[in-house]
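Data card: per-record layout.
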Amino acid sequence: MKFRLTKAADGDIAALFRETYRLFGENQLKHYTEIVQRGIAMIAEEPFRASSQRRDDLRAGVRSFHLQLAAGRHKGAAHVLYYSLDPSDGETVVVLRVLAEEMEPKKRIAQSLRAGEGLAKKGDRTRERE
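The structure for this 130-residue chain is written out next.
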């Protein structure tokens, strides 16, 4: 299945990686990069996986997936992927935001959706699951 990152999600990931490197160094950055990539691949492969959560409280069709599930251990990651399916094709997973678990997602998700980032836009990164 295809996936793409909104500009907001791309910015979230860039900031997350900068902060990880600053606080923990290159080895932890490499490890966390793999976790994020694995998490995105997991939701692209199976968007409605049992370990994801419906987040209709944020907006109908939005789901969340905690990256500790991609890490394979409790406390292995501290971020959550928020995503939905692109309504234009129903098959592309759109990663709306990647937020620290303690962040309140409602306002941030709403801003991304208001900006039209939940819809396919020229310039967004789309990838095939390999």
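Known properties of this structure: Residues 26-45 form the longest helix (20 residues). Helices lie at 7-24, 26-45, 68-71, 105-114.

See the next section for split statistics.
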